[in-house]
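tool=predict chain=A
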Amino acid sequence: MSSGLDLRLEIERLPFGRPHLVAVVLLAIATLFDGYDVFVPAYVIPYAIRAWRLVPSEAGLLVSSGLIGFMIGALLNGAFADRIGRKPVLAAALLLAALGNLANATWVDSYPRFLAVRIATGIGLGIILPLAVTLLNELAPSRIANVLLGWVMAGWSIGGVVAALAGIALVPSPGWHALFAVGVLAAPLSALVMVFLPESPRFLAIHGQQDEARAVLARMASTTPERYGGTELSVREDAEHAGSFAQLLAPRVRGRTLTVWACSGLSLFSIFGLSSWTPEIMLERGAAIRTSFALGAVLQLAAVLGGLGCGWAADRSSRDRTLIASWAVGAAAVIGLALVAEPRLDIGFLAIAGFCVMGAQPVLNNLTAALYETRIRSSGVGAQLGVGRLGGILGPYIGGWLQQLFPGSAALFLFMACALASCALLIRRLERSARTQVAPSAE
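tool=predict ok
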């Protein structure tokens, strides 16, 4: 591409305006549906265990089955979004998720059907989060990207809160199938995305769609299209090849890729293990079912605040330091849950864990997006979340398995604490490696 106006620098220069706000709101609502669907099975587990006579490891698969689909969807994300575009793929993913929820609300009446439908639904849902992260990073100036991503990811955690409240309100009557009817509302959101969400101007420019890129840029700048008329928009990155999985393992980026994959897997293992088993564990500790569901809501509400708080800290300090501190404090809180089973302390430990552990995930997603160039960014974020879903899949299942081997929840919580501590150590190593690479070039 010939030299011209540097698109990345122009986006950095733009003030936050109404188009940015529209994008943040739509992406936050999209991730709300994602989060809602992720956490809804946690409020089915207490009923399914008894109705379908499941052992804990089988009950864990109620959550893990959806996450298998999530992993497939996240890995497919780059193959489509880096070629077709961010916006149409996001709209299609929302529509697929709505159809899956419709099937679960009207057709599922057995354990095998539940697992099959959840895998299919998860494929659509698995595309939403990596695309939201990618698109926001390509629309927003980096100076406020962490805070804006915190707001977008707050939608994911709010979806968890809504799932808990829906469990309290709907499960006793008309029943747990009604929880999935709520997810059908993702269908009209798909239409709103196609009408109002801007496409990434970087994607358009890289694929030679200069007129479309100029129109989106003018819209983001809240000015007339004539401002950029005839201007060649330059993206100073190699755009000859679309992103691929193999490029993420090229020698130049292999170390950082493997690090964020490991951190994502361990982090999501802890997030989904904690979220899926909290209501049932609190029931076993003597809480009433509404109280146990409410504690699940406390966990998710703390995650909303954590996403905003960790994003704020990352913008003012650094992503690396924020992640290390969040995972270390989160590990300490989970150890508290393992060693102390007292209702008032449980609330405090759950709130800290939700704030730190779940609040750190948006920062990790944003760190991942910043590690890659535009041509492979969507593939990079999708692969990080897709490979990370392996940890998410194992979290609920291993959580049930550990409770079968070691009655009670202490072993599960201690296992999670070790996973979180490992995340902090890995990011510390990545930070030192980056510092070592920068130092010689500075000389």
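The chain is about 80% helix and 0% strand. The domain at 5-437 is CATH 1.20.1250.20 (Growth Hormone; Chain: A;).
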